[in-house]
Design brief:
The complex is a heterodimer of chains A (about 210) and B (about 425).
Chain A (H helix, E strand, L loop, with lengths): L1 H16 L27 H4 L13 E2 L12 H8 L9 H16 L10 E10 L9 E5 L17 E5 L12 E14 L4 E13 L3
Parallel strand pairs in A: 1-2, 4-6
Antiparallel strand pairs in A: 2-3, 2-5, 3-4, 5-6
Helix pairs in contact in A: 3-4
Chain B lengths: L1 H12 L1 H33 L7 E5 L3 H9 L9 E2 H8 L4 E13 L2 E6 L2 H5 L1 E2 L3 E2 L2 E4 L7 E4 L1 H7 L6 E2 L2 E2 L14 E7 L9 E5 H7 L16 H5 L7 E2 L1 E6 L5 H9 L6 E4 L1 H44 L1 H9 L4 H42 L10 H32 L6
Helix pairs in contact in B: 2-10, 2-12, 2-13, 10-12, 10-13, 11-13, 12-13
Classes of the chains: A alpha/beta (about 210), B alpha+beta (about 425).
Chain lengths: ~210, ~425
């Protein structure tokens, strides 16, 4: 009885703490330095492959972080340097121009095609796609807490559509922190705009712990 | 065996207090499990209402109100969105399908929803289940209506019956669209969602019944007949909200951002799953408070039993002495009181569950028609089993106090009891 009461009190406490307004820019810590240098071509892959044995007993899974999903040569900050952003006042028409350019660059959000077909493990926050969060067969994985509620939302290359392995629906809640292990697929969003995004198929989900 | 019948006779002798104890435990158990049951069933019911929709688009407001008025028909829309904005969103490359929704009218307390035939194709509930028309067909004529199962059941409508839509959302209405009656063209299968309590008509029909209602009331002297309205341009000017399905889920945030930043009109796009999670976060606090209160009620019920048992000990000292004289050991006395406490708790729990199921059975139709929450009379969930066994365990724990006291007394008193 007492145990149960404590449990409910703990739940109430957790609920109030989890409130949406309490946003402390919780970011998933980046993966170990070991993985910081990411091979860009499939040929290089074998060399830098850090084989880890994942909780699901799978080997041959590469642990990646969110930076892995952004191509190395895509650097919006060079644009900032080019415009000398710090010296621009807010009223400067060039500031507006820069903002528009940044927005455009951000929305392009190129992907890393080399990841296609690779078995990877990625940590992140869960954003449910369906109303029934007890049996999530699919959800979106995002790198920061509060995505989708606060603008701006993450760009396409920082959002992963996770499809869980058949018959293993994930029972969780909004912004649960999880490890997702699955096969990476590069998905083309629209043929006209050459936009693409990531999808993790056949995925297994485990709670995130450091 | 003799000891059981003796214990039973002793309990019968104190049947009044015993019965009161059982009833107080039963009531508290019914309350606790009832609160838990309503909580989980309401969640289940809400979660099963909409499926397969990626974004809900409406006028600028919070995600929770938008979800409540579009999907659950709770509360009213903050504003409408223009038909042009809707067309722009529907034409986006990343949008696979979209279904407009127009609310605001009612029929005898049931909301009327204006939409397109696409609604019956794209609206999904409870893990991708499609709406099914059991009788008739979706609307083909301007003045056709498709009824939800509950509407048809409660008001006894059949195919081809004529119904009149009222302006506003009240059960009693003085502003009816009497000159434009609708014909029931189809009746939907029961879904256990707010769709059951909705009258579906076409968007053009919503426009048609309002052509002579320009500034919030019928224009005096101007009456457009049902037939005249057919010849008019019935393209809707505004809708309440839209359900949107995307070609790719990865694009969800991009489309959401496009809609939220739409320059011509302040709009909101929400992810139904996220909005519902936010709603639960909000309600969760109240739910837990309610659970804690009912847990304390159970505690009070058990303390009632403790009091009853302790007070009975004094009057039973002679009984114990006699038992001792015929060869009962102090351990037997302990077991006797313990057994009684356990028996009372168990009986209380059983009675409480019987009471709860009876109440749920009686309350089921009322809750469904009032709140749209369908309560399933299923077996006990694992969590409820844990709760119940915790209560029984707590009953034994509470019983150990008077048992221990009786054990001590029977050691001290022996046969020389003076009452």
């Amino acid at each position: 009885m007492r145990k149960w009461l404590f449990l409910s009190l703990a739940i109430v406490g957790a609920m109030t703490l989890n409130g949406c307004d309490q946003l402390d820019d919780k970011k998933v810590p980046s993966a170990p330095v070991l993985q910081a240098e990411i091979p860009q071509t499939p040929g290089d892959k074998k060399v830098a492959h850090s084989e880890i044995l994942d909780k699901t007993g799978e080997s041959d899974v590469r642990e990646i972080n969110w930076d892995t999903l952004i191509p190395d040569d895509w650097r919006p900050e060079t644009l900032m340097e080019q415009y000398n952003a710090n010296e621009l006042s807010d009223d400067d028409p060039r500031a507006q121009q820069l903002l528009e350019k940044l927005k455009a660059l951000w929305s392009q959000a190129p992907i890393v095609p080399a990841l296609e077909g690779e078995r990877v493990k990625l940590p992140g926050f869960v954003v449910p796609l369906e109303m029934d969060t007890k049996k999530m067969a699919q959800f979106l994985l995002v790198p920061y807490y509060g995505a989708c509620i606060h603008v701006p939302p993450p760009p396409a290359n920082q959002t992963v559509h996770v499809l869980t392995r058949e018959g293993t629906a994930f029972n969780g809640r909004l912004f649960d922190t999880v490890w997702v292990t699955g096969t990476m697929r590069v998905e083309h969003l629209s043929s006209e705009l050459a936009e693409a995004g990531y999808r993790l198929e056949d995925a297994s989900v485990t709670p995130y712990n450091e | 065996m003799a000891i059981f019948s003796m214990a039973w006779q002793s309990l019968l002798n104190r049947r009044f207090t015993a019965l009161l104890t059982i009833i107080s435990i039963a009531l508290s158990v019914a309350l606790l499990i009832g609160v838990e049951r309503l909580r989980t069933e309401a969640r289940e019911s809400f979660a099963n209402t909409l499926s397969g929709t990626d974004l809900i688009v409406g006028a600028r407001s919070g995600p929770v109100p938008l979800l409540l008025y579009t999907v659950f028909r709770i509360g009213d829309a903050t504003n409408n969105i223009s038909w042009k904005s809707y067309q722009d969103i529907a034409a986006l490359l990343k949008v696979a399908w979209s279904v407009p929704i127009s609310l605001g009218d009612s029929h005898r307390g049931f909301r009327v929803l204006g939409t397109t035939p696409g609604y019956f194709e794209h609206y999904r509930y409870a893990h991708n289940r499609q709406l099914e028309i059991t009788k008739g067909q979706p609307f083909s004529d301007l003045y056709d209506a498709v009824l939800g199962a509950e509407v048809a059941d409660k008001l006894g409508y059949k195919i081809s019956d004529s119904i009149i839509v009222a302006h506003g959302a009240s059960d009693v209405s003085f502003a009816r669209h009497e000159n434009k009656p609708f014909r029931v063209s189809g009746i939907l299968a029961r879904t256990g969602t707010p769709v059951d309590r909705t009258v579906h008509v076409s968007l053009e029909a919503i426009e048609a019944i309002h052509v002579d209602w320009q500034s919030g009331a019928p224009i005096p002297g101007v009456s457009v007949s049902a037939e005249q309205a057919r010849t008019m341009d019935l393209t809707p000017k505004a809708i309440t909200a839209a359900l949107v399905g995307l070609k790719s889920k990865v694009a969800t945030f991009q489309v959401q951002r496009f809609i939220n930043d739409y320059p011509e009109e302040p709009l909101s796009a929400i992810l139904p799953g996220v909005a519902l999670s936010q709603l639960w976060n909000l309600i969760g606090i109240a739910e837990n408070a309610l659970l804690i209160v009912s847990a304390f009620v159970v505690l009070v019920g058990l303390f009632g039993m403790l009091t009853a048992l302790l007070t009975s000990l004094n009057e039973r000292r002679r009984e114990m002495a006699i038992l001792r004289s015929v060869g009962a050991r102090p351990g037997h006395v302990f077991a006797l009181i313990m057994g009684e406490a356990g028996f009372l708790t168990l009986l209380g729990v059983l009675l409480g569950m019987a009471l709860l199921y009876l109440l749920l059975l009686a309350g089921q139709p009322i809750i469904e028609s009032r709140f749209g929450i369908f309560i399933e009379l299923g077996a006990l969930s694992p969590y409820e089993w844990i709760l119940l066994s915790t209560i029984v365990g707590a009953g034994f724990l509470v019983g150990s106090i008077p048992s221990y006291r009786a054990y001590r007394l029977s050691l001290a008193d022996g046969l020389s009891v003076r009452v």
